[in-house]
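Support request, please re-run this one:
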Amino acid sequence: MSWFRRPSLASDSAAPRRFRQWWWALLIPVCAVAPWFVSWHGPVANPSADPSAIIKQAVAAQPRAQRKAPVPSPAAVAALSKELADPAGQGYDTPVSAKAAAAVRTTPGKYQKVGRIRIPRIGLNVSYGEGVYAKALDHGPGHWPGTPLPGEAGTSVLSGHRNTHTQPFKYLNLLEPGDKIVVSVGQHRAVTFRVRDTTIVREAKYPAFVLKPGKDPDARLLTLFACHPEGNPVYRIVVRASAGDAHAKGKG
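Re-run finished. Output below.
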């Protein structure tokens, strides 16, 4: 049986060693090359995709605690208020344009009285409120938001109906230069204005006309306006008045 020989212990230990060498020789190149085939970037939005879908995906990826709408800062609210007040009057007795108003979701608040207006010549003595939207004018004259309160420097504007609801400005056409218009704000002392002139203005041009500032920024001016002729708002009748020195010197 000389032809059969048992392998030596040396040959038994060499085989596993060669296997291990072969395994490491294969593993090292794989580890070096594999990272190049793996994407390390997050998903990238497709510019041509639907923007709303991208926004929804972004919101869904946020933690639930961060999905609440942020609260606007006081500065942002103040800037928006000024922006809405600037284009005052693009439409039928509306202090802001429809486009500007659509920028925010809001509804007029509860009707608030501001003060009283008294015009002896036409027998008027009523309270007036804040706002010139329809429901506010149902109660009586309304103060145009964004304009000074009566008695303050600048041009204060009040609007009212002539032939509907309380009809406070029905007889504006009877006012003459020099007639008194007495207006109060809250419990403060009333300010007396004197009529300067009455003008009929086309509907399309009345916002710029009634909001036009006086030449003297310190002058206390008052503008009243309503539809003209009665029941047909093709024009506006505009009565302008001034208080104190502004009337005496003809300023504004």
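Confidence is low (pLDDT under 50) at residues 39-52, 65-72, 87-92. The longest helix spans residues 9-33.
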